[in-house]
Design brief:
The protein is α+β, with helices and mostly antiparallel strands and 270 residues long. The protein has a single domain, classed as Metallo-beta-lactamase, Chain A. Helices cover 20% and strands 31% of the residues. The strands form 5 sheets. The chain has a 5-stranded mixed beta sheet with strand order 1-2-3-4-5. Helix 5 packs antiparallel against helix 6. The longest helix is centred in the C-terminal third of the chain and has 17 residues. It is globular. The chain starts with a helix and ends with a strand. The chain binds zinc ion. Zinc ion (ZN) binds next to loops. The site of zinc ion has 6 residues, from loops.
């Protein structure tokens, strides 16, 4: 497989490209295909949200799309499918809670036993993927002016401690892995209130601005507020489904299927 057919590029709006990558290629326990890497084009500056799995170079694709604009690179959070292309960029932003893990080589040795051919790409690097040259911390409320588009960082912990969403002045809400339809990776049950309060934060944004469209980092887009309310209600209902849980060792998690079919939950056992 080559770089050309690994990523699928789609122009969603004049100023918004989506670079899609199938993460199930690495290990089919991951079913949330595709990963959506978003590229926003302001008049002066472009913003890339995530750098993907690091299997093939993404920078040449980005360079072609941004033309002469400056480029900002942000990670929505630290999980392996989002930051492993960071090495191709001089400077990457991530929430301050996750700066340590992203500043050193990223250990993907849990893929050593994957039967999939593509894992050789990680083996060539001894399953340690190098970081960006410089990693810069983000915090809630940080704002980037791209020229005619302003993007604001919204800290939404839960899925991970430093998960962020991005709200634009043009009405897009990039939800990262905080909300999408598909397999959900949740912290242990005691931390559900953190997950739920992040969802409330996003629901409030949507209620204030009815025109906001949601762009999740996995699967279908755009979504609307019902993604957030479906997920909120689903997570609240896990308590009632607790007896149906099964062990899923690869993720060291409990697996519970939502009866709606919209979500499967992996709840951390650690
Ligand atoms: Zn993800």
């Amino acid at each position: 497989m080559s770089r050309k057919n690994h990523f699928e590029i789609s122009k969603h709006k004049d100023y918004l490209f989506v670079i899609k990558e199938n993460i199930s290629l690495v290990n089919n326990v991951y079913t949330n295909d595709p990963l959506n890497i978003y590229l926003l084009l302001g008049t002066d500056t472009a913003l890339l949200l995530d750098t993907g799995c690091g299997l093939f170079p993404i920078r040449p694709i980005v360079n072609e799309l941004i033309d002469k604009r400056d480029l900002l690179v942000l990670n929505s959070h630290f999980h392996w499918d989002h930051p492993l292309g960071n090495v191709e960029f001089e400077k990457v932003y991530i929430h301050e809670n996750e700066i340590d893990v992203i500043s050193k080589p990223y250990d993907v040795s849990y893929f050593k036993d994957s039967p999939n051919e593509i894992v050789k790409k990680y083996a060539e690097q001894n399953f340690l993927i190098p970081p960006a040259k410089e990693v810069v911390p983000l915090k809630d409320g940080d704002v980037f002016d791209l020229g005619e588009i302003i993007a604001e960082v919204i800290h939404c912990p839960g899925h991970s401690p430093g998960s962020i969403c991005l709200l634009t002045s043009t009405g897009e809400l990039f939800t990262g892995d905080v909300a999408y339809y598909g397999d959900q990776f949740l912290p242990k049950r005691e931390e559900f209130p953190i997950v739920l309060s992040s969802l409330i934060k996003l629901i409030d944004i949507c209620k204030k601005n009815k025109k906001v469209e949601l762009y999740p980092s996995h699967r279908n887009y755009p979504c609307d507020i019902s993604l957030l309310t479906d997920l909120y209600e689903g997570i609240q209902n896990i308590e009632n489904l607790w007896d149906t849980k099964e062990s899923f060792d690869f993720f060291q998690a409990w697996q519970i299927d939502d009866p709606s079919g919209k979500f499967r939950y992996y709840i951390s056992r650690n």
